[in-house]
């Protein structure tokens, strides 16, 4: 290792140590850095194309947040279970800080300033509030590397940086959070345009090389992208209303949280005290980034504005991202709703990722300038005074508001005092820093203070208090009993409170291998959500317990749990046991996973839903799913005709036997004396093929979201296989892109082209 690159290794090892210490209460306490997302089950379950333990059947490989195409997932999941998940989480933070360090070093040429920049982004509120969103953390990690490689291609368009640009693009996509990747590509694209005119190889060639690299990165990730697009077309994300689009933005009316993260409560377990009482959601703490970083960022902007295009770009990016993160508090957000692709996402408070990264870059430039004393004391005084006026003004406005006056009684004085102390100390550092203070001891003290400034709030974020123990991975006696009963009958479990269930969460169901109607994920099949009324978080309303509602029966849910007792007066549900503060019941009218009916009625979707939820057909007669199926289009096959010899065989008794039921294959032996319609309590989805006696037949969407199949009289071997063409297409494109990458990297002609 040459001295030239030694500082990169030192920085990497230092970040490893800092994050290990920072998260030590959880890591060394025997818990998992997991508290609200589904990433734990995604990490600990084997890769699958389809999962029966999720939303009554779901194409999990196509769901990007599962990270089944992400190489780092396999690297860390091969480690022992006790610590593999936590190390995987830490790796996202470490890579984020390290790549930010590398990019900042290229701009500032100061390892000290760059190390501070890496900490600023890696310990920001955006990163810490999303500890539970593992795919988001890892998608964020590749943004600094992509930006770094784009910067290097501008000056030295080598095959190394071309390869890293391709790699960063591909891994950003494969890491599993399309929204973060979209932000990354959007701001990286504008970054290329901003740098183009100053490129040493010319604007056109520079833009062309960057475009080819990004396209190849997209091609490498096609194995994930193509199935994801296919799933997206049949998911609840097909369209998005403005109301959903504008949800979970950064709350402008809680702007004081930028500097006083817990001024509205939200950390009951900590020294700050008090439940959240703000007007919007509690994730306003996403904007927390410390006082010292902000002062340094302003300092860097003032010093480098005229001389460095990078400074000007990231300052503008910071402002644009912050304005858009405010949601419909500004008129610009309504315009943004008209932008294709941008309007496919909600929770644009996540644009604070760009704000945090831009602040980190500008702070690194500011600290480098501070080391050189390139700005006068008077200018520093203006910067400090301006920030203090802004902070104190927001504080005065907030504490004199009616909301704060009414509900702040449970807060402790630390929620205001600690931030004010760090504001004062940060101001002193900026004002009294001198060149003579540039020694190792003071630099270490500065880094220590920066960590404290960044973590006086993030140390008390939910990751510290709402974790789960390692034994979460092991089923208890209740789960073992449920799995045995459901395995014998091929039925499912239904938890009314879904992700928040105290009996069986979707994550537990997947880890333990228990089939459930619940799930957790953004790309839920739209027809399934419409049919089941189960949300993306897996919870459903009490309406499914109504006497005449046959939804749970059709979903083959024989065991149900609720956070409160449900009525057993109609003899539909039988009480089994109480588990903690939840009640478990047996559904006595449950249907099997597959059955035959002799009547098929054509209805549109709204009419189907009414028939299923009320057990009443449009003509007033009773809908009984054991004898009738509902379809959208006429079926051109005669049924209920005992006189037709082709459709009747009196020597056969009706029978449906499930021979095999796995995630990707279902085999049944069917005996039917008459032509009949087979109904399977399985989600209808693209990629499933049906074979009757070895011959392929078309599946029919039945009862809104289930599968159906027409059978002639007789004995049949029915097989259903999950063989998604999108996966084959995506894998082929990925392989082709890999070959093209290797050709470009190894070809002599490409070397001449780069130079």
Report on this structure.
A hairpin with a 3-residue loop joins β10 and β11 (665-672). This protein has 755 residues and is α+β, with helices and mostly antiparallel strands. The protein has three domains: 3-32 and 63-464, no CATH class; 474-587; 594-723, no CATH class. The protein has a five-stranded antiparallel beta sheet, with no helix packed on it. The two termini are 26 Å apart. α1 crosses α5 and α14 (291-304) runs parallel beside α20. It is built from 28 helices and 17 strands.
Characterize this entry briefly:
The protein is α+β, with helices and mostly antiparallel strands and 755 residues long.
What is the secondary structure topology, with strand pairs?
Elements (H helix, E strand, L loop, with lengths): L2 H20 L1 H4 L3 E2 L6 H6 L26 H7 L3 H28 L2 H12 L2 H5 L4 H22 L3 H16 L3 H19 L6 H18 L1 H12 L8 H4 L45 H14 L4 H17 L6 H5 L15 H21 L4 H23 L2 H6 L6 H19 L7 H19 L9 E2 L7 H13 L2 E4 L10 H7 L13 H7 L18 H4 L2 E6 L10 E7 L2 E6 L6 E4 L1 E4 L2 H10 L13 E4 L23 E7 L3 E8 L3 E8 L4 E5 L2 E3 L2 E3 L3 E6 L2 E9 L2 H22 L1 H7 L1
Helix pairs in contact: 1-5, 4-5, 5-6, 5-8, 5-17, 6-17, 6-21, 8-9, 8-10, 9-11, 10-11, 10-15, 11-27, 12-27, 14-17, 14-20, 15-17, 18-20, 27-28
Give the helix level as a range of percent.
40-55%
Spatial arrangement of strands, main beta sheet: 10-11-17-13-14
Structural class: alpha+beta
Gap between N and C termini:
26 Å
Strand content: 5-15%
Overall spatial form:
globular
Give the total of domains: 3
């Amino acid at each position: 290792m040459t001295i030239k690159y030694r500082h990169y290794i030192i920085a990497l090892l230092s970040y490893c140590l800092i994050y290990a210490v920072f998260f030590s209460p959880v890591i060394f306490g025997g818990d998992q850095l997991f508290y609200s997302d589904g990433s734990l089950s995604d990490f600990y379950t084997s890769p699958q194309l389809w999962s029966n333990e999720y939303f009554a059947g779901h194409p999990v490989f196509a769901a990007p947040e599962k990270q089944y195409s992400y190489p780092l997932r396999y690297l860390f999941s091969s480690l022992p279970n006790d610590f593999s998940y936590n190390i995987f989480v830490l790796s996202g933070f470490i890579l984020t800080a390290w790549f930010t360090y590398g990019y900042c070093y290229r701009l500032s040429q100061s390892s000290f300033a760059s190390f501070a920049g890496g900490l600023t982004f890696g310990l920001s509120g955006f990163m810490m509030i999303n500890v539970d969103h593992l795919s988001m953390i890892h998608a964020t990690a590749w943004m600094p590397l992509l930006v770094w490689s784009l910067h290097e291609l501008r000056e030295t368009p080598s095959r190394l940086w071309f390869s890293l640009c391709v790699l960063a693009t591909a891994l950003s996509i494969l890491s599993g959070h399309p929204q973060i990747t979209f932000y990354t590509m959007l701001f990286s694209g504008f970054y290329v345009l901003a740098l183009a005119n100053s490129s040493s190889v010319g604007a056109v060639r520079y833009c062309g090389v960057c475009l080819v690299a990004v396209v190849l990165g997209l091609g490498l990730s096609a194995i994930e992208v193509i199935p994801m697009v296919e799933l997206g077309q049949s998911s609840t994300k097909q369209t998005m209303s403005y109301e959903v689009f504008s949800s979970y933005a950064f709350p402008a009316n809680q702007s004081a949280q930028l500097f006083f993260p817990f001024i509205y409560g939200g950390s009951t377990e900590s020294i700050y005290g008090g439940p959240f009482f703000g007007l919007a959601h509690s994730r306003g703490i996403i904007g927390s980034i410390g006082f010292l970083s902000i002062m340094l960022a302003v300092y860097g902007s003032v010093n480098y504005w005229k001389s460095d295009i990078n400074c000007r770009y990231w300052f503008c990016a910071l402002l644009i991202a912050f304005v858009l993160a405010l949601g419909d508090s500004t008129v610009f957000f309504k315009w943004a709703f008209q932008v294709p692709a941008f309007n496919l996402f909600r929770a644009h408070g996540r644009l604070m990722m760009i704000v945090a990264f831009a602040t980190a870059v500008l702070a690194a430039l500011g600290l480098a300038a501070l080391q050189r004393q390139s700005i006068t004391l008077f200018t520093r005084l203006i910067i400090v005074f301006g920030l203090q006026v802004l902070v104190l003004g927001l504080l005065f406005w907030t504490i004199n508001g009616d909301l704060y006056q009414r509900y702040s009684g449970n807060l402790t004085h630390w929620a205001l005092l600690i931030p004010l102390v760090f504001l004062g100390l940060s101001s002193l550092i900026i004002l009294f820093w001198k060149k003579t203070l540039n020694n190792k001891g003071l630099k270490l003290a500065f880094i220590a203070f920066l960590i404290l400034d960044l973590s006086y709030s993030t140390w008390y974020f939910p990751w510290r208090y709402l974790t789960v123990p390692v034994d979460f991975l092991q089923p208890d006696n209740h789960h073992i009993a449920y799995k045995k009963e459901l395995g014998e009958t091929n039925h499912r479990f239904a938890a009314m409170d879904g992700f928040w269930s105290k009996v069986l969460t979707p994550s537990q169901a997947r880890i333990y291998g228990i089939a459930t109607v619940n799930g957790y994920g953004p790309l839920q099949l739209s027809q399934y959500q419409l049919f089941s009324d189960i949300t993306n978080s897996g919870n459903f309303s009490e309406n499914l317990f109504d006497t005449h509602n046959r939804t749970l029966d059709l979903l083959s849910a024989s065991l149900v749990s609720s956070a409160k007792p449900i009525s057993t007066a109609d003899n539909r549900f039988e009480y089994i046991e109480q588990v903690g503060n939840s009640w478990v019941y047996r559904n006595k009218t449950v249907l099997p996973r597959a059955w035959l009916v002799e009547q098929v009625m054509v209805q549109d979707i709204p009419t189907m839903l009414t028939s299923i939820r009320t057990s009443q057909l449009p003509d007033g007669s009773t809908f009984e799913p054991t004898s009738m199926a509902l379809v959208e289009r006429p079926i051109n096959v005669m049924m209920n005709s005992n006189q037709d010899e082709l459709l009747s065989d009196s020597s056969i008794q009706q029978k449906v036997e499930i021979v095999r039921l796995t995630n990707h294959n279902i085999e049944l032996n069917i005996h039917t004396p008459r032509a009949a319609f087979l109904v399977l309590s399985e989600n209808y989805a693209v990629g499933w093929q049906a074979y009757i006696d070895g011959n392929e037949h078309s599946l029919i969407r039945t009862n809104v979201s289930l599968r159906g199949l027409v059978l002639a009289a007789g004995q049949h071997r029915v097989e259903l296989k999950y063989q998604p063409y999108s996966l084959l297409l995506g894998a082929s494109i990925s392989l082709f892109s890999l070959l093209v990458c290797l050709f470009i990297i190894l070809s002599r002609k490409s070397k001449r082209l780069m130079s």
